[in-house]
């Protein structure tokens, strides 16, 4: 069966993570969210997948290539053009992106699925397709029932008892919400839907296509499925999802590495004397990382590959990107270190270079900055310990 | 312009740096100005960082030196710490070494 993954967005709400990678490539314990989506599609018999790309397209195309590694076939539809060696992105919107693929090669020739590339799902797509066919729908929206107090975060679908969609509400207030069924960005379509999508222009599924279908009386249905939907819509979502994945609470999610003690998983080629390191899970430590004696690592924590955690450094409930150096006098607590930024998952972003804290936190490939303040700080900490 | 402004609240000296940045260019002078106040026998010192938006390692070093000069006879609290400076304090565990408070009056309360 055929599917399309929507991967052309800029991921503005997930900055600064998306300053260096497109949203579908954001890793949950090292694995891009979209890889889990493709694995899920493959399991449900969707083995021909078109991905539309735009923002940082190469990151996606170079990672998934032709899909063989994941047991599927993948093609890409880049929305934009190359000018003087620069990509000029021109995203067409979700429906516009579908139409471009159809105009290109008539790819969608039977019932097909369209999904967002930025949410982990374990929905039973077979059951959804069965529902879609039983209703004779041209389009089916997979919804998830959310608590009334959260409807303001979602697009809400209003349907009758049979599932036929009557109307939509975009981020309604709880007291005005006509439904608690949130649109999850998972759709099933018949190829006839293309009669309703204009060619060569920006067009959105949620904002334009569905309202137009409903107005024309085209059968659009929704089906509320109980499934796990882990959306990465913000930095806080990324933080929360990583913790779920680490804790084994994302169904079907295989954690990488080898478990060396309960809750402590590691990659290959780590330099560490575990008898001299205080570590408590759930923790994943990537390959090629070095950890000095006396370091403290407390879960839930992900340390990327090729990091350097110097002797005595502390890393608690944090996510460190590849090649992060944590100086011996530094202590991370509920932080994300990513793309040269120190990120509080619920607020502030500090640029490591602008704040001049490279002597505490830096790229591990740079030479160590041996700042005289290190000794002063160590002494202060000692004094503090002896005072206690 | 003076580097610091000193006021008192009962037994506590409140030192307010008149600087946006405490970096290598002013750290030494800043340290000496504060140490001069401390050397006069202060026991409780509050450092009000309301104006400070940036501090590098030499600035942090200056504060640690003040702490060292206070030794066991006195205590130090810091207040009005924001943004990158707060990150710096947390990252270096200084929030465990001296008291961090919201306002000068909170700081005085926490010191006593």
Secondary structure layout plus pairing:
The complex is a heterodimer of chains A (about 400) and B (about 110).
Chain A: E1 2-7, E2 27-28, E3 31-32, H1 33-43, E4 48-53, H2 57-64, E5 73-78, E6 80-83, E7 86-89, H3 93-105, E8 112-116, E9 119-121, H4 125-134, E10 139-145, E11 155-159, E12 165-170, E13 181-189, H5 205-216, E14 220-224, E15 229-231, H6 235-246, E16 258-261, E17 264-266, E18 278-280, E19 283-285, E20 290-291, E21 296-298, E22 301-303, E23 308-309, E24 314-316, E25 319-320, E26 324-326, E27 331-333, E28 336-338, E29 341-343, E30 349-351, E31 361-363, H7 373-387
Parallel strand pairs in A: 1-4, 1-8, 4-5, 10-14, 17-19, 18-21, 19-22, 20-23, 21-24, 22-25, 23-26, 24-27, 25-28
Antiparallel strand pairs in A: 2-3, 6-7, 8-13, 9-15, 10-13, 11-12, 16-17, 26-31, 28-29, 29-30
Chain B: E1 4-9, E2 12-17, E3 21-22, H1 27-39, E4 44-48, E5 54-55, H2 57-70, E6 75-79, H3 83-91, H4 94-97, E7 99-101, H5 104-111
Parallel strand pairs in B: 2-4, 3-5, 4-6, 6-7
Antiparallel strand pairs in B: 1-2
Helix pairs in contact in B: 1-2
């Amino acid at each position: 069966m055929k599917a399309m993954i929507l991967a052309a967005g800029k991921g503005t709400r997930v900055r600064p993570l998306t300053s260096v990678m497109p949203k579908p490539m954001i890793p949950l314990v090292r694995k891009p969210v979209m890889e889990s989506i493709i694995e899920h599609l493959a399991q449900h018999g969707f083995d021909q997948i078109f991905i539309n790309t735009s923002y940082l397209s190469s990151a996606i195309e170079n990672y998934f290539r032709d899909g063989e590694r994941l047991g599927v076939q993948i093609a890409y539809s880049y929305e934009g053009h190359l000018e003087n060696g620069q990509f000029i992105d021109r995203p067409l919107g979700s429906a516009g992106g579908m139409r471009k693929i159809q105009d290109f090669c008539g790819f969608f020739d039977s019932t097909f699925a369209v999904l967002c590339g930025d949410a982990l799902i374990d929905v039973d797509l077979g059951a959804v397709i069965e529902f879609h066919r039983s209703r004779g729908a041209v389009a089916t929206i997979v919804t998830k029932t959310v608590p009334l107090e959260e409807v303001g975060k979602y697009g809400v679908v209003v349907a009758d008892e049979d599932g036929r969609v009557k109307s939509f509400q975009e981020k309604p207030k709880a007291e005005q919400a006509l439904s608690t069924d949130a649109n999850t960005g998972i759709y099933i379509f018949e190829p006839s839907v293309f009669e309703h999508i204009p060619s060569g222009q920006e067009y959105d599924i949620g904002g334009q296509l569905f309202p137009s279908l409903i107005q024309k009386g085209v059968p659009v249905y929704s089906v509320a499925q109980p499934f796990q939907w882990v959306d990465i819509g913000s930095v806080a979502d990324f933080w929360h999802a990583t913790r779920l994945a680490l804790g084994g609470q994302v169904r079907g999610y295989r954690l990488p590495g080898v478990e060396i003690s309960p809750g402590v998983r590691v990659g290959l080629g780590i330099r560490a004397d575990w008898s001299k390191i205080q570590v408590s899970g759930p923790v994943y430590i990537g390959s090629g990382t070095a950890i000095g004696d006396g370091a403290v690592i407390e879960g839930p924590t992900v340390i990327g590959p090729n990091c350097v955690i110097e002797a005595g450094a502390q890393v608690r409930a944090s996510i460190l990107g590849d090649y992060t150096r944590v100086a011996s006098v530094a202590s991370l607590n509920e932080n994300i270190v990513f793309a040269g930024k120190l990120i509080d998952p619920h607020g502030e972003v500090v640029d490591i270079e602008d704040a001049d804290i490279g002597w505490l936190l830096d790229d591990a490939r740079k030479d160590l900055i041996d700042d005289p303040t290190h000794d002063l700080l160590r002494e202060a900490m000692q004094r503090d310990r002896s005072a206690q | 312009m003076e580097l610091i402004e000193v006021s008192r609240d009962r037994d506590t000296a409140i030192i307010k740096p008149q600087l946006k940045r405490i970096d290598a260019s002013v750290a030494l002078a800043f340290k000496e100005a504060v140490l001069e106040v401390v050397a006069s026998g202060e026991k409780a010192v509050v450092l009000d960082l309301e104006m400070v938006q940036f501090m590098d390692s030499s600035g942090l070093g200056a504060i640690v030196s003040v702490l060292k000069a206070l030794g066991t006879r006195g205590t130090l609290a810091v207040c009005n710490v924001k943004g990158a400076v707060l990150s710096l304090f947390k990252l270096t565990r200084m929030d465990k070494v001296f008291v961090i408070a919201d306002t000068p009056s909170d700081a005085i309360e926490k010191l006593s």
